[in-house]
Amino acid sequence: MVTSGEHVTVAVAGPLRRTFVYRQPASIERLEAGQRVLVPFGAARKIGYYLGGGVPGKGVRVKEIVKVIDDATLFSPELFKLCLWMADYYFANPADCLAAALPPILKTKRKPTFRWGDAPLELDKLPSWVAPLIKEGHKIPTTVLQRIKGEGRGLFDRMRKSGLIAAVWAGTGAGPKGAPIGFRAVSSDAWKIPAWRKGVSLQPFDGVKTRTQLKAVGWSEYRIGKAVKSGLLEPVYSEGLSEVMEFVRPREHVAGLQLNGEQRSALDKLSEFLDKGFSTTLLHGITGSGKTLVYCHLCREVLGRGKTVLALTPEIALAGTTLAYFRAFFGDQVTVLHSAMTERERLQSWYGIRQGKYRIVIGPRSAVFAPQPDLGLIIVDEEHDGSYKQDDPAPRFHGRDCAIMRARINGVPALLGSASPSVETYHHVRSEKYHLATLATRPTGARLPIVHLVDMRSERVRGDLPFMSYTLKKEVQGRLTRGEQVILYLNRRGHSPMLKCAGCGFLSRCPQCQVNLTYHKTGPKLSCHYCGHTEPSYSACPSCGGSEFLYLGSGTQKVEEAIPCLFEGATPVRFDSDAVTGRAKAYRILTDFSSRKYNLLLGTQMVTKGLDLPGVTLVGVLAADMSLDLPDFRSSEKTFAQLLQVAGRSGRAETPGEVFIQTYYADNDVINDAAAQHYETFFEREIESRRRFRYPPFVRLINCLLSGSDEKRLESATLSFRNQLADLVRRHRLKADLLGPAPCPLYFLRGQYRRHLLVKTGQIVKFTTMLSEWEHEQSRFGIPSAIKIVIDVDPDDMM
């Protein structure tokens, strides 16, 4: 905290990882860490974040801060520290990290209005003139606010922090009381103004009236808005986030489930860490072993200690499954926080979390910023999942690793859960950096499914159905005939990956990426799955005018189309990102499938993640080899995890389950380890490979990706960057290997040529510090402005 007249450091969003020094004018008494300010930036004014004191450079003209946007910081000390750590570790602009922690409405220049809260402060600690003015839920007049701020001694800050004064951002329809349900007339002489239209009498009224009721007596939307702005009407707010939660029903009966002996042992071990500060524990439980049930019982103990819980899940679409479980245990104490919520809903949830109304927060990686007070536990479910890594835009952080760092900063335990832990996580367990709790059996006597490999070199159906083997076809039909349910897994959406003219061989390609466009029968359309380019499907070949096309390869749409011909009595539903539109669609599809509205679930990798569907007795993997062929050192790990996870969807109730994995690599070690469901065997082989070739966890990786529209200029800039970087590494005596530069596997994307340089180092902090110093001395590392550079620390996508 600094006082007026001093120089301060402010972070402003932009492509450069740097901060700026401004002068704090006398009109601004003091600033707090993370507080938003409006600053002159070139010819514009931008939102900045106060970081602390600053020292201006010699001969630099220092500009003054224009105004303070927030009356108090929106960041707790711990959350502010986490954001600055992210900026340093992931080589990001601090402003980008701080902005990522706020709802979208709080990234604008709009200032809040203030309302009276529920007055938790003891009134005898307030000035005597304040108490008579408090009207819970009412807007605080500007004159009253100015008088409170003029009292000094931090009175306004204390009233804000206690909840007696609450901020409301205009335009969202949201505030501490939730969504507006109607309007209350404010007693005022302003009502004596002439009617806005002859013959219409607008009079004060008692109680609360809805918009409909007001319109019935002569009001219009215009008059309502004008009356609110004039202070004649005051919005009245409802409680809670019912519209956010209404599509997720609590899962029946789970709150009454008793833990078995193994689950109880795991819970007892995890409970030991609740009062011992920071620690990281892996709950390694086989698929269907009841990890979520253990989470809920552990959360019950955390809440009993007066603390709150943050639970991360891999994807927004699947947060509803976890939410249904937690709501059965904790009811309205649970909320969600994710980017698919509307602006108003996200602000409402953020408000409730910040004020302690919601004790458990569930969400994907962005929920790591939830402003929870009294945090007591952080859970990262399916910690191995690549969805936790944000590739674009900045900050390019890993949700799991940031969750662990947040737990360290807050001094609370972090719990990671998975049936197929990441190689890095399990290595930390082996080296005793992390603790371990295990669940090796399924409750209620259910057994792991029997897994069969189907060699597609000899068993595939010829002709139009190359994605289906005779064996799998027969097994699926048998299960459907017996009234059981089936999951088919194919990690390729769309109808056909290639559309080819049968006459001249013309292939439809993306003009921005030079990759084949995927044919989608719904539309119909051609779509690029990298840049999003779409165009209508052809009725005639653009090259020769022919009308006959070959639909090469198979996606989920083509398989869905073939199911009625393949299986008698099948009622299929597709579960991929094309079918799951809207935040509630995923939950509704899974709910309908669980209630037997459908008997066959066909999907991409979304069906591999944490689904508990007791009616499923057969899982068919249509193409197990797709991810093995990618040029990525994690391809084996990703393939193993996907196969192990999707196999675990089968046989989770009394009826035994089976899994059939179709593959062209029936003798591949990874495929066989997944079929045998032997994680330890896979890990031993994979960790030795990582050690031999120096990949994580034995080094850290930094992917330096450069792109530009001129390929020759890009190549020159990339070589110059590499040579300067190599020279700096030598001068700083760092241990680092520079691999490349080389064209990216996707060398032309979104109209840009791409080159990357991969850095392997065991001195990640020293290396990023060196990069920061270099960028400070030489803007953009001396790279021409036409060339874009991205520094990705701990990359997950190597394409």
What does this structure look like?
The chain has 799 residues and is an alpha/beta fold. Helix content is 29%, strand content 22%. It contains 22 helices and 34 strands. The strands form 9 sheets. The protein has a 7-stranded parallel sheet, sandwiched between helices. Helix 1 crosses helix 12 and helix 8 crosses helix 9 (291-304). The radius of gyration is 29 Å and the shape is globular. The chain starts with a strand and ends in a 6-residue tail after the last strand. The model is unreliable at 170-179, 188-200 and 238-243 (pLDDT under 50).
Q: What's the helix and strand layout?
A:
Elements: E1 2-3, E2 7-12, E3 20-23, E4 30-31, E5 36-41, E6 44-53, E7 67-68, H1 77-89, H2 94-100, E8 112-116, H3 142-150, H4 155-162, E9 165-169, E10 180-185, E11 208-209, H5 211-216, H6 221-230, E12 233-237, H7 242-245, H8 261-271, E13 279-285, H9 291-304, E14 308-312, H10 319-330, E15 334-336, H11 343-354, E16 360-363, E17 375-381, H12 399-410, E18 413-418, H13 423-430, E19 435-439, E20 450-455, H14 456-459, H15 470-481, E21 485-489, E22 498-501, E23 518-520, E24 525-527, E25 534-536, E26 549-552, H16 556-566, E27 572-575, H17 585-594, E28 600-603, E29 616-621, H18 635-647, E30 658-663, H19 669-676, H20 679-693, E31 700-708, H21 711-731, E32 736-749, E33 752-761, H22 764-777, E34 788-793
Parallel strand pairs: 13-18, 13-19, 14-16, 14-17, 15-16, 17-18, 20-30, 21-28, 21-29, 27-28, 29-30
Antiparallel strand pairs: 1-4, 2-3, 2-6, 5-6, 5-7, 8-9, 10-11, 10-12, 22-26, 23-24, 24-25, 31-33, 31-34, 32-33
